[in-house]
Structure formats: C-alpha cells, structure tokens
Amino acid sequence: MNARVRSGERRAEIVGAALEVIAERGYRGASLAAVAERVGLTQQGLLHYFPTKDALLVAVLQDRDRWDAVPDPRWRVDLLASLVEYNAMRPAIIQTFSALLGESVTEDHPARGYFTERYARVRESMAAVLRAEYGDSLPNGLTPERTAPLLVAVMDGLQYQWLLDPESVDMPGAFRDFLRLLGEPVD
C-alpha cells in the first residue's frame, strides 16, 4: 500500500475519531489530544494531518456532508419522511450535528459560516421540493419559500427532542404527522 493511500486512511480514521469526540463533548470541549489518543497518535502526530482544530472541524463537516447531502430539488416530499427515518438510525451522527449546530450560533465559532451557508442551501432545496409538489402555493396558502424554513425547523426540532428523550419522541411518526398538516397523504 502506498503512502498516499495510508495517509488518506489515517485522515479518515482521525475524522471518525473527531466525530466521536465532538459528539461526546461538543466542539469546545473536544481537544486535539483526545482525538489523537483515540487513534493512537500524539497531538504532534495528529497536527501532521490537520494543522489546527478548526481544520479538523471543517474536515468532519465536509465528511458528514458526503453522507448527508442536502435534499435534491428532484426529491418528493414523501422522501423527506424516509430521510427522517434514516436519521433515527444514526443517533451519533445526529448528536454531533446537533451539538455543532447549537455551538455554531456564537459569533466566533469556526462552523458558523458553514452552517449559515448550509441552511441557505437547505431552505432553497426544500422550497424547490415543495414547489415541485404543490406549485406556487401549498394547500395552507403559503408559498414554498415561506414553508421551507418551517419544514427545516420541524426536522431539526424533532431531532433535538428525540436526542433528549428517544423513548418518548417518535421522530419519524411526528414528522409524518407534520406532513399530514401540509396536506400530504402519508402511510
């Protein structure tokens, strides 16, 4: 195996460990030393792959986006329910995303720009999904652009409630109930 492949595998291992540490401690509580320890490196060894904690955070977020792309405008509204069901099978990923999102609302957080841009893309994509399904006006009279932030808020809000009390919050069921409020026939 050549050095480039080994280096790529090592970077992926470090990103995975960083994801775990951030999920457990949040970004501010996560340390490069803790990540390095998980992968059997010194902190200096880890800095060879990621020169700063912020660079490692960006790698974690980019890696997450590879598995969790923003819904495509060609999606149907009913596929969003499948996305929520899929998320319910990945509590660690959802916990990490939620922890980083919560922390990123502060002015100096290194992921603030990432989340601001991501939410703009998500709202735009959700509006396109809604427009493809309903046209310029949903049954409730709102435009897709007015409904998109509400749809995103419901998805994210359900994630927080589910993370806090998974036994009491049926995230996929509650989302299907929300789709019914939009006028969607849901099984």
TrEMBL record:
InterPro entries the UniProt entry points to: BetI_C (IPR039538), Homeodomain-like_sf (IPR009057), HTH-type_TetR-like_transc_reg (IPR050109), HTH_TetR (IPR001647), Tet_transcr_reg_TetR-rel_C_sf (IPR036271)
Recorded coiled-coil stretches: none
Signal peptide region: none
Protein name: TetR family transcriptional regulator
Sorted UniProt keywords: DNA-binding, Repressor, Transcription, Transcription regulation
Ranges of residues in domain HTH tetR-type: 8-68
Regions recorded as binding DNA: 31-50
Highest classification ranks of the organism: Bacteria, Bacillati, Actinomycetota, Actinomycetes, Kitasatosporales
Domain of life: Bacteria
Molecular function, one GO term: transcription cis-regulatory region binding
